[in-house]
Amino acid sequence: MIGSPIALAYCSYFLAAASPGPSNMAIMGTAMRDGRMPALILACGVMTGSLAWAVLAATGISTLLATTAKALVVIKVLGGLYLLYLAMRAGSSALRPVPDVPRVDTARGTARYLPLYRQGVLMHIANPKAIMSWMAIMSLGLREDAPGGTLPAIIGGCAVLGIGIFGGYAILFSTARIIAFYSRVGRWIQGLFSALFAIAGVKLLVSPG
Q1: How far apart are CA 33 and CA 153, in angstroms?
Q2: pLDDT tens, 27-71?
Q3: Which end of the chain is less congested by CB atoms within 10 angstroms, N or C?
Q4: Domain total for the chain?
């Protein structure tokens, strides 16, 4: 039965992608602060980073990185420092007053899309947990007797799930009700994001291995 391994891979990816983490927190914060389109651009970057690790896991390169201590340490350090940078940015936003109705600056919106996309890619590329998650997903779905179409089915299905999950966060947290809520408690939310990013970054830097 090829459905069962693929279904397990889908379930594993859904749990990993939908659970609270730096990428989802960044998408939520961007959606509430800047609006739907910037959040969707950030989500596209996150999805690109996720698919990059999917391809690396499929080709076995991520396994080589994971078994090479120095390479994994470099990735962990860079990922931890990047999370601390995001914590500093969120903390800075928390110190600034939040406007009554956050809106995107349409004059500068297009210019900001590339940095947002790059931020999404880097958050996933510099996250060792993404490596491990995709290795687990591939190990669940790719058995010795797996048919030739199993790998494309896993990557394609997970891509659809990821688009729905990350895009869903961007759309949900850019709705008028959520934005109105953000206008009241936005500084507290940014402060919370700052703390969570900082905790994740420090944990990544001090974790063994």
Answers
A1: 36
A2: 988 898 888 999 999 999 999 999 988 888 777 755 565 566 666
A3: N
A4: 1
